[in-house]
Every structure is written in structure tokens, then in C-alpha cells.
Amino acid sequence: MATYVEFVSTEVEQSTALAKFLAKSSGSEEFQVEGKQLSEVVKKFLSLIPSLFKENNSNDKEVESFFFALFGLIKKLDNESAKNATQSVVSTLTTNQPIDERALLRLRILGNLYNVFDENPAERYNVFLALARYANATHRSEVVLPQFKDIEKRVAEWGLSSKQKRELYKEIRDSFRHGNKGVEAYQWSTKYLAASEGVDSESTEEAFGAALEAIRLPTLFRFDDLLELAPVKQLQSSQNATHSKVYNLLKIFVGENAESFSKFNSENPDFLRSVALDNESSLNKIRILSLASLSGTNGNGQFSYAQVAKSLGVDEDSVELYVVTAVSEGVIEARMDQLEKTVTITKSLQRTFTQEQWKQLNENLSVWTNNVKLLLKTLAETKQQAAASLQAESI
Which residues, 6+ apart, have CB-to-CB distance to 336 below 8 Å? Predict the structure, then answer.
């Protein structure tokens, strides 16, 4: 018959109920709480909780009830004691061996602990970070992925330092990686790099990895913002030849074409393989990106199959396949005339948008705004004049 922790009123009654449950679950002698300080009682309970994760000692509901009651006692401690007790709980939940034993139960308990300390931003951050790390370590990232939807709001509430943000963003990135969500993982890699203060060996390696990730992902076609991040810029002047070559390759995928890629490949044979990039996949991706850039070379957006084939470095027979792929990926909008063997690109992905382009856009918007104001003023004046004329005629 299951024995559940009872929620009773006084600290002594609560502590006694928990002591009985621990003794029953662990098979040890019951700890006597009478006359003991609450901090001493909690410390004793903390030393015994590893036994709760043995599969046959207690069921999940019993263990969750125990921890919920224990958290209530911890909240009654002074701030420093409560902080130390919380850290002890987190450490036990995330490191007790075997680490993946009753992993889902441990994750639920960590989630409960996070919710208990709703008025303490610092502790909430520490618990949330531990929750993400443990989920990644035990290959249970699917449990925490839904919690990242409003993470930016939480980050603002927690008031994190740059270092804490980077710690958190790396764990979130790894969660998405474990969940086979490559584009989302890449996005958190860029957030990590954007939160970096200065450039160090760790951020340089992260930048190197993010650059390769951007090139490798088959459905990621816009990543010019990566070149604006300081750790990525540092790759260009790195003494590490591999780093500088990856930077040059990244620039090709950001704004250049298939011809540039082929030239890089011929100058650096076997380089792609050395950094775990697949040559065929990379070539297909740069060809699709080249189609986006092609539209800007002709005012009406119309090209013969021969022109497209030359731009992509393929036979004319392959043109339709690449156009269809580019359309399906949202890189271009186009129509093909198979009889005339022409491709008309009506819309294409803006592969790069530099600071200068933002400045130009701002200037254009300012001109447009002023023109609209002038038009409205003219309409108002015309309306006034018409009203005055009507009034004069009526007299």
C-alpha cells in the first residue's frame, strides 16, 4: 500500500511526516525531529534524499509529494540557509548516479522547485539552468523545449549578466541540437555570440562552429548578420588558417555565387572535408543562393536557361530542378517557360542588408514621410479653398 506525504500544519508535524516517509523509503532508522532546529532537520533530509531515486523504494507521486513538502520547509529558512539547501537539492537531482535513473521524475521536481521560488530571480535562473543542463545530459531535451518560448522575457526578469546569458544560451542551443532542430540551434548560437563581451578563445570557437553551422544547414539561406558579430569578424584575421578560410567561405555563402565557391574549392582542395562540410550539399546550397542574386543582374528578371545554367555552373537540363527547389524553399518566386526556355524571377531573397542599406532605407522613408505630409497639407489647403469658394457663391 502506498504511503503518501501528508500536508500537515506545523513545522514539527511536517518534519515528522517527512522523516517517517524517508525511513520507510530508505529502510533506515527514523530521524527524530523533536527538539531539532529546522535547519538541522532540513540538512538531515537532504543527506537522505538520494535513496528516493532507487526504482523500488517509492513511486513517483510519493517522491513528488515529499519534495513539495520539503520545499515548503526550505522556504521557511533564512535566506542564506535556503539558498544552500536549494543548491544541495539541485546538485543531488542532477548528479546522483546513475544520472539518468528516473530522469523524468527529477525534471518534474526541478520544475516544481523553479515554481516555488517565484519571488527570487537569482534562484529561479540557477534552477532553470540546471533543469536545461540535466535535460541535455540525459537526452530529455524535448521536456524543456516548450519552456524556451518566452525565455527572453524571463531573461529580462532575472537581470542576467552577459556571462549568465551566454551560459543559458549555450544550454538552449544544445537543447535544440539534441532535438534535431538545426535552424533554432543556430539562432541561439548567434544570440550567444551577440552576448559575448570582447573576444576570447571560447567565443572564437563558438564563432567558428556557428559559421560552419550556417553553411551546413540546408534550409538556412539568410545569415548576413553573422558577419557583423565581433567573434565572427575575428576569424578573418585569425592566425589559425582554418578559421580564416571558414570566414572567407562564409562570406561566399552570404553574398557571392557558385563561381566564387568553385574557385575557393579549387584553391583549397579537401578543405570542406577537413571541416566536415559535404561538398555536394554545399554546392547545391550556393547554387540556390546564386539564383537569389541573379535577379538583380537584369531589370526585367528574365533569363534564358543558358544564362541560368552558366550562373549556376550546371547543364541546362538541371536548371528547372534548381529553380523549383529555390521556389519551394522560398528563396525566389519565379515562373518558367519551357517552350521558350526562359526563367522569369519576380521576387528573390535579399541575401544581405548592410548598415549602409539600412541608412538608405531610413533616408527613403524620411523622404516618403515628408512627401506624404506635403500631400496632406496640399489636400487640406485645397479643401479649405473649395469650402471658401462655395461660401462666396452662396452669398
Answer: 320, 323, 342, 343, 344
Q: Cell 506635403 identifies what position?
A: 374
Distance of CA 170 to the CA centre of its chain: 8
Angle (CA) 107-109-114 rounded to 5° is 95
Instruction: Number of helices (H) and strands (E) in the chain: give both, helices first.
Output: 19, 3
Question: Which helix H or strand E contains 31, and what residues bound it?
Answer: none
- The DSSP bridge partners found for residue 343 are 303, 336
Return the bridge partners of 333, or none. 347
Give the helix/strand (H/E) hosting 182.
Answer: helix 182-194
Query: Would you say 271 and 237 are in contact if contact means Cβ atoms under 8 Å apart?
Result: no
Q: Is the pLDDT of residue 355 over 70?
A: no
Q: How many CA atoms lie within 13 A of 118 on its CB side?
A: 4
198: left (phi over 0), alpha (psi -120 to 50) or beta: left
Q: What is the DSSP string of 128-180?
A: HHHHHHHHHHTT-HHHHGGGGTTHHHHHHHHT--HHHHHHHHHHHHHHHHHTT
pLDDT in tens, 102-116: 999 999 999 999 998
Quote the CA–CA distance of 350 and 255 in Å, as a whole number. Answer: 10
Q: How many CB atoms within 10 Å of residue 67? A: 26
Per DSSP, the three-state class of 346 is strand
Strand partners, 348: 332
SS3 343: strand
- Cis peptide bond prior to 98, omega within 30° of 0: yes
pLDDT for res 261: 97
| Cα of 42 vs its chain's centroid, Å | 37
The pLDDT tens digits of the residues spanning 284-339 come to: 999 999 999 998 787 788 999 999 999 999 999 999 999 999 999 999 999 999 99
- Band (pLDDT 50/70/90 cuts) for residue 377 is confident
pTM for this entry = 0.81
| For residue 390, pLDDT beyond 80 | no
SS3 category, 335: strand
**Contact assessment for residue 180 and residue 146, using Cβ atoms and an 8 Å cutoff:** no
Would you say 230 and 196 are in contact if contact means Cβ atoms under 8 Å apart?
Answer: yes
